Please model this.
Amino acid sequence: MRCNKAQEYLGLDLDGVLPPDATVQLTSHLDGCSECREFREDLLMGQRVLKATEPELPENFDWKLQLRLNQRSGLEQHLNSHFQRYKYVSFSHYYTPDLS
Ligand SMILES: [Zn+2]
Model:
Protein backbone atom coordinates (compact mmCIF):
# COMPACT_ATOMS: atom_id res chain seq x y z
CA MET A 1 0.00 0.00 0.00
CA ARG A 2 1.22 3.48 -0.84
CA CYS A 3 1.50 6.06 1.90
CA ASN A 4 -1.09 8.37 0.38
CA LYS A 5 -3.57 5.49 0.34
CA ALA A 6 -2.70 4.58 3.91
CA GLN A 7 -3.23 8.17 5.00
CA GLU A 8 -6.57 8.30 3.22
CA TYR A 9 -7.51 5.12 5.12
CA LEU A 10 -6.36 6.71 8.37
CA GLY A 11 -8.83 9.54 7.83
CA LEU A 12 -11.64 7.06 7.20
CA ASP A 13 -10.58 5.02 10.22
CA LEU A 14 -10.78 8.11 12.39
CA ASP A 15 -14.33 8.66 11.18
CA GLY A 16 -15.09 5.03 12.00
CA VAL A 17 -16.03 4.17 8.42
CA LEU A 18 -13.04 2.09 7.33
CA PRO A 19 -14.06 -1.46 6.28
CA PRO A 20 -12.43 -4.29 8.30
CA ASP A 21 -10.38 -5.65 5.38
CA ALA A 22 -8.97 -2.18 4.74
CA THR A 23 -8.21 -1.86 8.45
CA VAL A 24 -6.07 -5.00 8.21
CA GLN A 25 -4.16 -3.57 5.21
CA LEU A 26 -3.72 -0.27 7.01
CA THR A 27 -2.43 -1.92 10.18
CA SER A 28 0.18 -3.90 8.27
CA HIS A 29 1.30 -0.74 6.45
CA LEU A 30 1.62 1.11 9.75
CA ASP A 31 3.77 -1.72 11.12
CA GLY A 32 6.39 -0.94 8.48
CA CYS A 33 5.99 2.82 8.01
CA SER A 34 6.95 5.26 10.74
CA GLU A 35 5.91 8.20 8.55
CA CYS A 36 2.29 7.04 8.51
CA ARG A 37 2.40 6.25 12.22
CA GLU A 38 3.40 9.86 12.81
CA PHE A 39 0.64 11.03 10.48
CA ARG A 40 -1.81 8.99 12.55
CA GLU A 41 -0.59 10.64 15.75
CA ASP A 42 -1.10 14.04 14.13
CA LEU A 43 -4.62 13.09 13.12
CA LEU A 44 -5.48 11.90 16.61
CA MET A 45 -4.09 15.06 18.14
CA GLY A 46 -6.01 17.19 15.66
CA GLN A 47 -9.20 15.30 16.47
CA ARG A 48 -8.75 16.10 20.15
CA VAL A 49 -8.22 19.76 19.29
CA LEU A 50 -11.37 19.76 17.17
CA LYS A 51 -13.40 18.16 19.93
CA ALA A 52 -12.26 20.90 22.29
CA THR A 53 -13.15 23.66 19.86
CA GLU A 54 -16.48 22.54 18.43
CA PRO A 55 -18.44 25.61 17.42
CA GLU A 56 -21.42 26.82 19.41
CA LEU A 57 -24.48 27.76 17.48
CA PRO A 58 -24.98 31.50 17.23
CA GLU A 59 -27.24 33.01 19.89
CA ASN A 60 -29.77 34.11 17.32
CA PHE A 61 -30.01 30.76 15.63
CA ASP A 62 -33.72 30.14 15.22
CA TRP A 63 -33.74 26.38 15.47
CA LYS A 64 -36.62 26.32 17.92
CA LEU A 65 -38.71 28.33 15.52
CA GLN A 66 -37.78 26.03 12.69
CA LEU A 67 -38.67 22.99 14.77
CA ARG A 68 -42.08 24.50 15.46
CA LEU A 69 -42.52 24.96 11.75
CA ASN A 70 -42.02 21.22 11.43
CA GLN A 71 -38.94 21.53 9.24
CA ARG A 72 -36.87 19.26 11.38
CA SER A 73 -35.37 17.08 8.67
CA GLY A 74 -34.49 20.09 6.54
CA LEU A 75 -32.86 21.73 9.54
CA GLU A 76 -30.85 18.64 10.34
CA GLN A 77 -29.59 18.53 6.78
CA HIS A 78 -28.64 22.15 7.06
CA LEU A 79 -26.78 21.56 10.33
CA ASN A 80 -25.02 18.49 8.96
CA SER A 81 -23.76 20.36 5.92
CA HIS A 82 -22.72 23.25 8.16
CA PHE A 83 -20.67 21.05 10.44
CA GLN A 84 -19.29 18.96 7.59
CA ARG A 85 -17.96 22.15 6.09
CA TYR A 86 -16.55 23.33 9.39
CA LYS A 87 -14.83 20.01 9.96
CA TYR A 88 -13.37 20.01 6.48
CA VAL A 89 -12.01 23.52 6.85
CA SER A 90 -10.58 22.71 10.25
CA PHE A 91 -8.95 19.51 9.07
CA SER A 92 -7.31 21.14 6.10
CA HIS A 93 -6.11 23.86 8.46
CA TYR A 94 -4.58 21.42 10.90
CA TYR A 95 -3.30 18.86 8.44
CA THR A 96 -1.83 20.91 5.66
CA PRO A 97 1.69 19.49 5.39
CA ASP A 98 4.38 21.88 6.46
CA LEU A 99 6.47 22.30 3.33
CA SER A 100 8.81 24.92 4.66
ZN1 LIG B 1 3.35 4.98 4.87
User: Anything to note?
Assistant: The CA atoms of residues 7 and 48 lie 18 Å apart. DSSP finds five helices and no strands in the chain. The chain has two domains: 3-52, 59-85. The first helix runs from residue 3 to 14.
